[in-house]
Amino acid sequence: MLRFLTLLSLSVLVLLSAATNSCGGDQQSCGDACYNSNDYNCWTDPTTKRPVLCPVGTENCAGNCIASCGYTCQHGQIQQKQNNTCPPSCSSGQSPCGQGCYDSSAYCCISGKPTDTAHCPDKCDTYITTSPCNFTLCDVGELWDGQLRADFGPGANWVGFSLKNAVLRDDRGQICYSSAHSQLQCNTVPQNSDYANFGISSDGYLVYKGSAVFYQSAVGTGGYNIFTQQVPYSGKIALKVQLYCPVATSSTSSTSSTSSTSSTSSTSSTVMPSTTGPCNNFTLNNTGQLPDGQIRYNYGADAMNVSFSLNNGVLTDNRGQTCYISTSSQLQCNTPETNDKTSFGVKNGYLSYKNSITFYKSAVGTGGFNVYTRKVNREATEVELQVKYNC
Among 109, 121, 272, 357, which residue's CB has the most CB atoms within a 10 Å radius? Predict the structure, then answer.
């Protein structure tokens, strides 16, 4: 019974301290953690008196986050509702895939779409255990607590991965593994030491212990938990790998080209950004800053005007704070979380980071958009930050 409930509910983050943090921007405090109220609710466990963070659509019950659409809490005991409204509800012999159901004897689920079993991956005889570069898994996001979530759902964001010596890590450096309940998740400290089991098949699917078959089980808030073994109410799923390898610029091709048109094109494609501005005062179009240092496109509540200077790749705001890309890929200026502070520049009149002028904006509840270097969720869209010098 406990195993069944665990599979259909969401994992819980129990906060071990009741100290209140100072949270900036649109964040609120819950014990010693900060959270976005659009994604999480803060509960006080009646037994332990400790604060508990649960994703929106779930509630706390004796330290567990349970899906409100399918369960209720009675005196600390989890009870299943008779009118379970958790989507989707599949009939016997069918499994969930995306927003619908499919015949599990004839199809498997790949990237949220039913696929004929003849085209579904299975056991792999050959696969690599070190990827040539970073990658994503199609239609797979990650919750703040490290759970991987197919078809996303509230609280889950886009996530990147790396693979080295069969060890899979997310883009926060956390190790991915199969939990005691066979759930695929990533944490700083894995629950077990048996995690060097991953690979990428020759046809481009994630592999675990020689198999490219995973299983997904719907959760009440949307999306699906991912498992390495079949669990109740689960269906097969394959996780397609999309590599993001940098494209090497060939100096030979541009040198050997005799066409003036080709030569011009080759030269423009390899233009390097300037890492020092002509003067120490410029702004970015339609871009402001919150008091805590977060850069905010289209401004929004509490954001103010901000100007910048650039020197040897180091971007500084007009308060003298160093700008950097946080561990969550967000552009902000305060005490840097990372040592990578010298990768900024100006390219073709736009701010660049690691030679790219493409950033991503994601809306926040108080108005305006946070700015990121990667697509952190489905709603995030590309944006370029034009530089205006005030020389």
Answer: 109
